[in-house]
Structure formats: C-alpha cells, structure tokens
Amino acid sequence: MAGRAVTLIAAALAAAILLLLAAPLLALGLRLGAFSLGPADLAAIRFTVTQAALSALVSVLLAVPVARALARRRFRGRETLVTLLGAPFLLPTIVAVLGLIAVFGRAGWFSQILALAGLPPVPLYGLQGVVLAHVFFNLPLAVRLLLQGWQAIPAERFRLAASLGFGARDLFRHIEWPMLRAVLPGAALVIFTICLSSFAVALTMGGGPSATTVELAIYQALRFEFDLPAAARLALVQFLLCAAAFALAGRIARPEGFGAGLGRTGAPPAPGGIVRVLDAVVILLAAGFLLLPLAAVLLRGLPGLASLPPQVWQAALRSIVVALCSTALTMAVALPLALAAARPGRVWPGLAATLPLASSSLVLGTGLFLIALPLVRPADLALPVTMLVNALLALPFAFRILAADARRLDEDHARLARSLDMPGLARLRYLILPRLARPAGFAAGIAAAFSMGDLGVIALFATERELTLPLMVQQLMGSFRTQTAASAALLLVVLSFGLFWIFDRWGRHHAAA
Amino acid sequence: MLRLEGLDLRQGTFGLRAEWDLQAGARLAVIGPSGGGKSTLLSALAGFLAPEAGRILWHGQDITALAPGKRPVTMLFQDQNLFPHLTIAQNVGLGLNPSLRLTAADHARTEGALERTGLAGLGGRRPAQLSGGQQGRAALARAILRDRPLLLLDEPFAALGPALKSEMLTLLEEITVRAGTTVLMVTHDPRDARRFAPLTSLVADGLAHPPQPTATLLDDPRPALAAYLGKG
Amino acid sequence: MKHPFLALGLAAATAMVAPETRADDKPVLTVLAYDSFTSEWGPGPAIETAFEAVCGCDLRIIGAGDGAALLARVQLEGPRSEASVVLGLDTNLTAAAAQSGLFAPHGITDLPHDLPVEFDDPLFRPFDWGWFAFVHDRNRLPEAPGSFEELAASDLKVVIQDPRSSTPGLGLLMWVKAAYGDRAPEIWQALADNILSVTPGWSESYAMFLEGEADMVLSYTTSPAYHLIAEGDDSKSAAAFAEGHYLQIELAGKLAAAPEPELADRFLRFMASDEFQKILPTTNWMYPAHMPDEGLPDGFDWMIRPETSLLLPADDAAALRADALAEWQAALSR
C-alpha cells in the first residue's frame, strides 16, 4: 500500500523519530571524536548483550510450542487465556519482580513445594534470574507475535498439506518453518532490544554489581558523576547494539511468501494422541508460569483496593489520559511506517520504528529536559513529554505487530487497488483498516498498556501534584505504604489490562474475516 | 486503436519486444508457452511494469506513463480479483466509484450488473462464500461497471471446468460485444482462442508477434507455435 | 465504546486543557526535594500548610526523583532553576554540590542543632537525620547479628541498595569504609555470599524484605517506628552493630540564583522551628535536627540508639567514593 504519499509521510516521521532520538544525545554534549570506553563500560556492555540475547532466545524458543499449541487447539476459555497471557508484559517492573519473588523466591510458593520434597529453593538471583524475569515479561509478546503468524497462514495451505498427506515433520518444514523464519527474528529483535535497556530488573534479579547493564552505567554517569557526555556515549552504544541486532535479524528473516488466501481462517491440523497431551501440558505450564505471579500480585493488592485514597484515583485518571494520547500518537506513526515498510527490500521504516526501544529513557528525558529548559518551565511539560516518550517507546511493538500484516496486505491486494484507482482515503477505509483491524487493535492495546505502566521520564519533569499512577506506586512504596502500594499497583495492572482488552477486542471484533 | 510502438519490456534477465497495432473493438487471444511473456505483456499494458523503451498508445494518446488506475484499462488477474473482506456488492461497486461513495442510482446499477452476470441476490455475500465461477462473474460484473474500452484477462477462468469456462466466455462475449470493448485474453487453450478471439498473438522467444487471424495461425502453425501446440 | 479510537481523540483533547492554578499576587517559593518528601504521605503537604501560614507566600515543593537525582537536576538547570531551595541532599553529596558553585551561604549562626556529631556547613542546614541500620523481623530472625563480621559469618541473606543509584546504598559504602578503612574490601568479600540482591533504590529492597525474601534489609534505625506507630506492629527491629552506625544527615541549601532569596532565607530558618520539626518523625521517619519542645512521639523510645556514630567529613566522602565503589564492585562481582 506504499503509495508515494504514504512513503513521504513515513519518511518524514522516520526523520522526526531520528531527530528526537539524536537531539538529546547532542544536548548532552556527545562528541564522537573523543569516543572511548573504559573497562567497566565494556563489562557492562558484555553483560547487557549476554543477558539480552539469552532472554530473547529463550523467550522465542519457548514461545514456539506455546503458540503452536494455542493455534491448533480449541477449548473453553481459550480466548480469555490468550488475552490473559498478555498481562505480564503490561506489569510495572517492580510489581512484576515482587510477583515473581512471591512464586519463585526463597520464601515463594514454588520453593515451599520444593521444600516439601526436601529440596532447596531454586537459586533465583544471578544471570538465570535476569533471564527468568525477562522471559516472564516477554514470552507473552513472543507468543502473541507467533500466534499471529500461525493465524495468518491461509487455510488453503493447511488444506493442501492435508491433501498431500503431510506428516507433522513435513508440515513443519514446508509451512510452519517458513512462517517462523519470517516472524521469529523480528520477535527476537524486539525482545533483545527491550532487554538492552533493562536496568532495575537486571540489577535486582542479577543479585549484584556483576549484573551491571549499560543503562545502570548511564544512571551512574548522569546522577552521581554528572558526566553528561559519558551518558550520551553509552546511550549511543545502546543504539549501535540495537542497529546491529536489527541488521542481523534482517539477514536471518525471510518473508514467507505464502500468497493470499480467500480470507478463510482455519486452525492448523490438530493431531490427537500423545501430541494432544503434550499441547495440553505446554499450555498448562505456560499459563502457570505467567499467571501465578499475576495471581500473587492480585492477592497482595486485593485487600486494600476498595480503600485507596482519592489521590490514587486521580493519578489513575491522569495515567489513562496519558496512555490514550500516547496510543493515538503511536498508532498515527506506526501505521504509515508499517505501510511504507511493506515494499520489499525497504528497511528504513523498520529501523526507525525499532531504535526508540534501545534509547535510554534517562538520556532521552535528560536531553529533552535540557532542550526544553530555556523555552518553558519543565513542570509544564511533564505530561506532554511523558506522552511523547511513551508513544515513542511503544512504537516498536506497534510497528512489529502491524508490519507483517501490512506486508501481506500489500502482496495480496495492492495490485487490485491500484488497477481500480482507489484513492488513499478509500484504501485506508475499505482496505487497510479492515484488513489490519486485528493487529491494529492488538498494537493499540499494547501501546496503551505500555504507556500506563511506564515510568519513563516523568520523574525528571515531575510537578507538584500531577503524578501518574506508576509514580504514585513508587511514592507509596517510598513512604512505607506497602499495602496501599500493592493495591495501587493492582489498580494499575487492572487499568492497563482493561485498556489492552478493550483495544484488542475491538480489533478482533472488527477484523475482516 | 491500441498501438505498441517499439515496446521493450524487461523483468530481470527476461526480455520481451512488441511492435504492432490492434483495432478498437477487436478480440485478441494471447497464446504461447509458459514463461513466454504473456503475463508480462499484460502487466505492461495495465501499467504494473514500466517498459525499458517504447510507447503504448490508445487512440493516438500516449498512456505509457499513466498509473494503472488512470488507464483506459480493466484487468482481471489470475487470482485476487476480489477483496476477501468486502461484500460482493462492495467489490462490484468499486467499479463505479473507487471510494465506494455510492448513490442510490449506483446501487441500482450495481444490482443490475450482478443480475446480468447471474449473481442477483448474492451482493451481500463475501467472496469466500461464492464458488469459483461466481467469483469470476463478480469480477466481470465490476468490469461492466468500470466500462473501460480495454479489457485485459490474464487467465482468470483457467481454474474453471470446461462447461463453466464456456459459460463465462459466452457471458464475456455478450458483454464486450455490446460495449464494443477491445479484449486481450491470455489463454492456454487453442479452443478458447478459436471460439472467442478472431485474432491471436503468439508470444514466444522474446517476441509478441503481431496479431494474425486465429484460424490461419492455428491451422498452419509456425514451428514455435507448433511445438507449443504439440503438433510436431 | 464502539470506537476506542474516537475515545483517543477525546482524551487527547481533554489532556491539552491542563489546569493551571496560580495563587494571585503572592510570591512563589519553589523548593526542590526528593520524591518521598513531597509525596502525599511524606512531610511535604503539612510543611506547605505550616509555612504558608506564616510567609504570605505560595510554597511549592517539587519532587525530582531521589536524593542523587536532586543534585543532578540542580546541575542540569544551573542558574535557570525556578527553585530557590534544594532540600534533601546528604553529606555524601554536599562536596559535589558545593563544588558546583550553585549554592549560596545560609549565614545562619544562631540556631544550634541537635545532632549526635559536630556539624557545621556554611552552605547547608540540616533538617533531619538518622542512622543507617539493618532491619529484621523478630518473628523470623529472633537473634540478629551484632556486627558486619557476625553478619558475614552467618548464612543470613540481606538486600542492599546500589551505591551508584541510591543514597542509602552510598551510605552503606561509607559506613563500611568509615568502620574498617583499609579492611573494607575484606569485609565486602566476606559479605558477598550474604548479599541476596542489590536493588536500584530503597523501596525495592524494603518491599523484598517485607515479602519475606530476605532476612534483613539496609534501612534506618527508625524504620521499625513506622511499623510500630502506624501499623501497631512491633515485630520489626534494627540490629545494633558494634562498629557503630553511619549517619545520614539530610540537608537543605539556598541556590545562589534563587528567584526568591529572602523567602529562601526565611524557609531555612523556618526549618529549625517546632512547626517544621514536629512534622518529620512520623512522616519522614527520621530524627528531627532540632528537637521540638514536645519531644519525640511515643514509639521512638523503643528504637535502638547506637553509642557510636560514624560520619566521614563531606570532602573525605567525596574523595573516597570512587575507590570505595571500585572495591565494592570487585568484591561483589566474584
């Protein structure tokens, strides 16, 4: 669908994104001439890449059996489960860490069961803990991206496979593997990039200073040493790592080229017997792993939910508004970029949409703060900047979710639309929106929830009372109000999830069959 | 009159030349071996492939640089002639207004086109709910409404059985004769060419040969055609 | 809602109409503080009311992250800051703050404070203080270790904060350094297997401790007072360490480029008043720097009172930091 107008809009947006990412680095005084990294920086980079790569790899590898089982099995509550599985991705980090600890920690449920069997608790802290937490956050995203891939395989292909008497191995080789080859690298790239800028999770679960990520080094440079150029340098390193991962993923990925179907949706063949049992086990394990920590969050927060102070509700309302604005912005940028990326061989829209995820929100916030300072009171910008940054950080997810379907849309229907001379708006209304409603709803849901939960940069711009809900949770925890904080965190989760649910459902409801 | 002037088409290493005229209102079969360039020729005429050199003229006007939708052309592809998520009526209505802003009169005309193609009452369905033959008819119904003087068919009926295909050709003939449409139809089947197209162009060996009377060509095939037809 | 996207538009429109409330005519004094000070549950709101009752001004206390973020924010803003007072630095940060040249002398000589050590700084005035300590739950851990060495010899697990991102974390670094000097690396190595996790900030550590994940957490001797007074829970206790306890003295200073220098001076003097000081124990859960007439609230007498207070002079703390940090990292990275 990449007409000239779309390409131009996308190019302008990509340029704006790059400017928005580069300007803070320059504001912090980045000088490429004196580019040197000390041994501590190199150690941080090494750890960052290791944990991010492992987290991405484990997430996508585990996601394959889970997504396949969900794609080919139909059972009561399947839709609900698919939606619920998205929840960990939406949790604020500290809440998620506490949920994980309640299940897998030394005094956690899992360890108590082990203790009944006379076994010691699993060692949670260390590289394995970092990966565990990151997989907890990102497995749902990987599952959803893969599930989308499975659902996008035209029913005709499965029918053909069945008529040719394909066994499970043939099916995998000729249909599922090409799909995975197209989807997995992108999913892994996004997760790798998210984990690149991990800070609190990596440090807390890593158990000590050997779990120092680049983002923590940035924090140190900014807050304790006040060495702004050093922070900018490290932020640039994060971008370069992301760009390198992007290039690598691009080399590995192959568009599957299934061609179009008649829009019939059909589940992949569902073999019975032992495979059926295995699928059930896989779904149960994934549900347990992802939902038990959520249950812990729920149990901790539920008692105080009714008696939350009014300030929390005000903050919640503010957060919803911020999230909705960010979502609108994200979608307005992601859609043109995804459409522009549909042209084979064109990589810049994807890169522009992925880079923001590698940005250090501290550097981004500090840079924007410095740029804004001579012009306006920073406090006046607190909410707009939060919206902007949240939108920017949610962009990679929205783009990734839309891009595959946008490409398919282009392959399947662009020719007909052109030969009929459908004008841009008609294409948008009758072709793009109906064909992309499902991924658009999902993408908007992710963006909204992401913007609800993200602390981002607001702390720096913070005003007297205009707090967002995540900041409120932080303050409650900082004032010993653990119970109230748990309830406010639960409210945050419920609201994030509610927004996600509304958008995702809208998308599925309006998805053209 | 359709004029192909020193047309030189390239797709990767494949090349195809054409230099001939076709009278308005003519019906031309395009035949030749697989991979010989039949679809390439139609793609260029429809505007999906820009020629390396040469011009395409319609009634003396150069249409080489026009966008596909701006050409006096309707094209039926091998597949994907209908949007799967729109109803048949919407798919057909796109022929009247690509923005789908349809007046009451437009709706009536859409219904009329559906009736003419034997799809009365099926306007509310989605393509997947129709048979292959009905899908072809829906695409034809849209072609009627688009009412462009040039109709290009890239084997849209190849998947249909003999009886259905024959039915479609009859319908196609009836529609295009009445409207005076110039038709270029890619086909694999010499019988289709004999039945439907007084003229035939052989596309083989990098060349789209000038149109010749179908009967003459098929009765006394040149070596390339003979090889294709299996009459060695 | 049929169209969530429609809702998006509406929300965007509403958000742009940000309410701006500005008290008419009154001068505005802006104070930059750390987040938990400004919070609804911190001292901020009560102090605002108390000072506004006497100053004829509009006091705005703005949060800027934690203590370290506070100094970075001041340095970022430089002379452009709309703040006149910065509140919440501690002695480990004041050397850098003084060096920035952004602070002006307070000139106060007539208001002696009640600190366990001698303290006098031309730029910064203390408003409260506390001892760092490891807090434990007596139900889970009836006998707490009595020193770093005892802790290191035990198989107890503690959570601490990272000195690169948190002021208590930095305080602990200085504590070990002040207590053990050149033996600090050895102590850290011995402690390595007791440290369950290092968190970016205090609140993550404390939440993990309350969750039952760790036996002890780095906090303050006064932290149990919160549980006792606010929750009626007497199970939390701070372990008294034989080496002595490091002090955190929380300070405020006037910015050289203060838009409201007179109000800033009045605020710094007001900090020593009973009205200000009596708010602190049960909101900031620290000791007041000037003991109010009514004394401390009930419950504070239950808190341990270390006999030895440790504190490195600001300049020494700044000079030692880089090396101490490297020792800490090396010892814990094994």
In short:
The complex is a heterotrimer of chains A (513), B (232) and C (334). Chain A is mostly helical. Chain A has helices at residues 4-27, 39-72, 78-84, 87-90, 93-104, 109-116, 127-152, 155-163, 168-196, 200-206, 214-224, 228-252, 274-301, 310-340, 348-358, 361-372, 382-419, 424-453, 458-461, 469-478, 482-510.
Task: Explain how this protein is built.
The complex is a heterotrimer of chains A (513), B (232) and C (334). Chain A is mainly alpha-helical and 513 residues long. Helix content of chain A is 76%, strand content 0%. The longest helix of chain A has 38 residues, at 382-419. Chain A starts with a helix and ends with a helix. The relative contact order of chain A is 0.15. The mean pLDDT of chain A is 85. Chain B has 2 domains: 2-72 and 148-229, Rossmann fold, CATH 3.40.50.300; 83-146. Chain B has helices spanning 38-46, 88-93, 104-116, 132-146, 162-179, 190-196, 214-219, 223-229; strands spanning 2-11, 14-22, 27-31, 53-58, 61-62, 73-76, 150-154, 182-186, 199-204, 207-208, 212-213. In chain B, helix 4 (132-146) runs parallel beside helix 5 (162-179). Chain C has 13 helices and 12 strands. The longest helix of chain C is centred in the last third of the chain and has 19 residues, at 314-332. In chain C, 54% of the residues are buried. By secondary structure, chain C is α/β, with parallel strands linked by helices. In chain C, 38% of the residues lie in helices and 20% in strands. Chains in contact: A-B, A-C. At the A-C interface, helix 5, helix 10, helix 11, helix 14 and helix 16 of A face helix 1, helix 2, strand 2, helix 4 and strand 7 of C.
Top keywords for this entry?
heterotrimer, A: 513 residues, mainly alpha, MetI-like fold, 76% helix, C: 334 residues, alpha/beta, twelve-stranded mixed beta sheet, 13 helices, 20% strand, globular
Write the layout of secondary structure elements.
The complex is a heterotrimer of chains A (about 525), B (about 230) and C (about 325).
Chain A: H1 4-27, H2 39-72, H3 78-84, H4 87-90, H5 93-104, H6 109-116, H7 127-152, H8 155-163, H9 168-196, H10 200-206, H11 214-224, H12 228-252, H13 274-301, H14 310-340, H15 348-358, H16 361-372, H17 382-419, H18 424-453, H19 458-461, H20 469-478, H21 482-510
Helix pairs in contact in A: 1-14, 1-15, 1-16, 2-7, 2-9, 2-13, 5-13, 7-9, 7-10, 7-17, 9-12, 9-15, 9-17, 11-12, 12-15, 13-21, 14-15, 14-17, 14-18, 15-17, 17-18, 18-21, 20-21
Chain B: E1 2-11, E2 14-22, E3 27-31, H1 38-46, E4 53-58, E5 61-62, E6 73-76, H2 88-93, H3 104-116, H4 132-146, E7 150-154, H5 162-179, E8 182-186, H6 190-196, E9 199-204, E10 207-208, E11 212-213, H7 214-219, H8 223-229
Parallel strand pairs in B: 2-10, 3-8, 3-9, 6-7, 7-8
Antiparallel strand pairs in B: 1-2, 1-4, 4-5, 9-10, 9-11
Helix pairs in contact in B: 3-4, 4-5
Chain C: H1 4-16, E1 28-33, H2 35-38, H3 44-55, E2 58-63, H4 67-77, E3 85-90, H5 91-99, E4 103-104, E5 124-137, H6 148-153, E6 158-161, H7 167-180, H8 184-191, E7 195-199, H9 202-210, E8 216-220, H10 223-231, E9 236-239, E10 245-255, H11 261-270, H12 274-277, E11 287-288, E12 309-310, H13 314-332
Parallel strand pairs in C: 1-2, 1-3, 6-7, 6-8, 10-12
Antiparallel strand pairs in C: 3-10, 4-10, 5-8, 5-9, 5-10, 5-11
